[in-house]
Structures are given as structure tokens and as C-alpha cells.
Design goal:
mainly alpha, two-stranded antiparallel ribbon
């Protein structure tokens, strides 16, 4: 049976308060929900281990797809290493 709308809203607000705590603690630098009301995103610079520890607090309520991204400096260094590897072959 589905929860009453008031219970659903109460649960969502509790989750949003948890998100605010993560933002205030600096574990998330940005968070947003898409206008479909289901999907969203979060941006963090935590290590992979700390990301997992943070995500475990939300499971199984929230479903995740984690995408690791490189900044410009990390990308340049990766390209330099790849070029050196190719030239060494």
C-alpha cells in the first residue's frame, strides 16, 4: 500500500534536511533535483571511499549512478601519461 501524501511529503522533507546537513558540512558542494521530481544530481570532491560511506546512509531509499569526473588539471595529466605510454610502445 502506498503511503498517504502527507507521509510521503514528511519523508521527502526529512531526506532534504539530510541533504542540507551534507551541504553545510561540506561533503556536498552542490545538489539539485530535476523538475521531473525523481532524478537529480550532487557534486562532491570526496574520495571514492568517502562517497561510498555517504551513499550508504541513503540506501536503499535513493538509487545512485556515480560518475567520476576529472577537472582540467587531472585531464591534462592523464593525457600526458597516455601520450608517454603510447610513445614508449
Amino acid at each position: 500500500m502506498l503511503a498517504a501524501p502527507q507521509e510521503g511529503m514528511k519523508a521527502r522533507m526529512k531526506l532534504l534536511e539530510m541533504v542540507k546537513a551534507e551541504l553545510n558540512a561540506g561533503r556536498l558542494s552542490e545538489w539539485g533535483m530535476f523538475s521531473n521530481g525523481v532524478d537529480g544530481y550532487a557534486i562532491t570532491e570526496l574520495s571514492e571511499e568517502d562517497i561510498l560511506a555517504t551513499l550508504l546512509k541513503w540506501m536503499p531509499v535513493v538509487k545512485y549512478k556515480v560518475i567520476l569526473a576529472l577537472n582540467i588539471h587531472q585531464t591534462i595529466e592523464a593525457l600526458k601519461r597516455a601520450t608517454a605510454t603510447i610513445q614508449a610502445e
